[in-house]
Amino acid sequence: MSNIYHFRTMPFPGPQSYPNRIAVVGDLGLTYNTTTTVCHLKKNRPDFLLLVGDVTYANLYLTNGTGSDCYSCSFPNTPIHETYQPRWDYWGRFMQPLVSKVPMMVVEGNHEIEKQAGNRTFVAYSSRFAFPSEECGSSSTFYYSFNAGGIHFIMLGAYIAYNFSADQYKWLVRDLASVDRSVTPWLVAAWHPPWYSTYKAHYREAECMMVALEDLLYSSGVDIVFNGHIHAYERSNRVYNYALDPCGPVYITVGDGGNREKIAVEHADESGKCPEPSTTPDDYMGGFCAANFTSGPAAGKFCWNRQPDYSAFRESSFGHGILEVKNETWALWTWYRNQDSYTEVGDQIFIVRQPNLCPLHQKVNSHLSSAL
Ligand SMILES: [Fe+2]
Q1: Which of 81, 111, 192, 202 is catalytic?
Q2: pLDDT, tens digit, for every residue of 311-347?
C-alpha cells in the first residue's frame, strides 16, 4: 500500500567496524529552523541518526492546532492539558525523506511526557518509535542499549526513576556489566537534560540524576555523553564531579535542533545571571541535589564567575553534529551551524580514548556486586 523504502543497517559489532557518520541532534520540533537543521544534516550524509529528546513539541499545541506555549501544563498535579497529536504526524511526514533511508534511535525528552488521563505518559513517544525488544536486554522504551559496529550506545531516561533501587539503575548495571570493550571499544551514553551545561536555562536541573549515576558511568569508562534540552551548543572537556579528569566522559549538548522555543543565550556565570538555586529543578527532576558542590574553581558557590574549566566550547546557534569513529581510540566530532555553508565547521575535535591510561575503574565492581 505504500512505496518500498530501504536502509542500511549498522555494521556488525567489532573493534574494526563503525558506521561512517553518526548525526546527533536534539530538540528538533518543526519550525523554519528545524527545516534548515534537517536539510543541513541530510547534506552531511549520515548513516545513522541519534535524536536526544524533545521531538515534536506537540504538547505546546492546543487541539485546534494553535500554539499554546503552556510550559506548566504537563507537569504533575496540574490539570490534564491538550497536546495536539497531528503535530506528531506532521513531524513524521517531514522527517520521512530522512528516516526512511537512515536508521534513527531516539530517547525521551520532557516534551514527550504528554500526561493524559489516568496518569498515562509518553504514549506517543512509546508508540511511534521502535525500540529494542526484551530479548535485547530491556523491556522499557525509556532506557535501552544497542550496538552500532564497535560502539555500545546506552540511552537513559531522565524523567523516570533512576536511583539505586530503581529498575533503570539495575538494568544499567547489568548492561554495563555485559559490555565487552574488546568488541565494542566505544561506550557512548545519551539522555535528554545535560549534567554539564553552563547556560542559565535549565542550569543544574538534572543534578539528582547526576548524583545518582555519574559515579557508575565514570567507573564504567563512558567515552562520550550526548544531551539536548538546552537550545544551544556546548562541548565539555573530560570531566568528573566538576573537576577535569582525563578519564571522564566528554559531554556534548546539542539541543540546537531549532524548535519553537527560543535559543539559549545567557550563561549562569555571567554577572547577574546565576539562577536562585531553589528554583532550578522542576517537579520531574527529582528535587534539589546541587548541595553536593564541593570542588572546582567555584567551590562552595552555585555558579562560577567565569566560563568553568569543564566547559571547552559553547555557542548559541542552531545546528547539528556528526560523529565519525575512526578506530578503537580515535573519533572525530564536528558541529555544524545552521547559518554556515554546508561544509563550514563550527566546532571540531578529535576525541581520543586512552584505555591504557584509563583502565576501567575498580569502583565499577562494587556497583555491580551491590546492585545485582
Ligand atoms: Fe527538553
Answers
A1: 202
A2: 999 999 999 999 999 999 999 999 999 999 888 999 9
CA 136 to centroid of ligand 1, rounded, Å: 27
User: Rounded to an integer, what distance in angstroms lies between the CA atom of residue 174 and that of residue 359?
Assistant: 19
> What cell does 80 get?
490534564
Q: What amino acid is encoded at 172 in this protein? A: L
CB-based neighbours (< 5 A) of ligand 1, an ion = 54, 109-110, 229
* Ligand 1 centre distance from Cα of residue 110 (Å): 5
Q: What is the pLDDT of residue 55?
A: 98
Reply yes or no on domain 22-371 having CATH 3.60.21.10. Answer: yes
pLDDT value, residue 75:
46
111 CA to centre of ligand 1 in angstroms: 6
Q: What is the pLDDT of residue 1?
A: 84
Interval 244-295: pLDDT, tens: 999 999 999 999 999 988 899 999 999 999 988 877 776 666 677 876 566 6
**What is the pLDDT of the chain when averaged over all its residues?**
90
Note if 202 is an active site residue: yes
Cα(318) to ligand 1 centroid in Å equals 15
3-state helix, strand, coil in the chain (%, to 5): 25, 20, 55
Going edge to edge, which strands form the sheet with 347-352? 104-106, 48-51, 22-25, 319-325, 330-337, 347-352
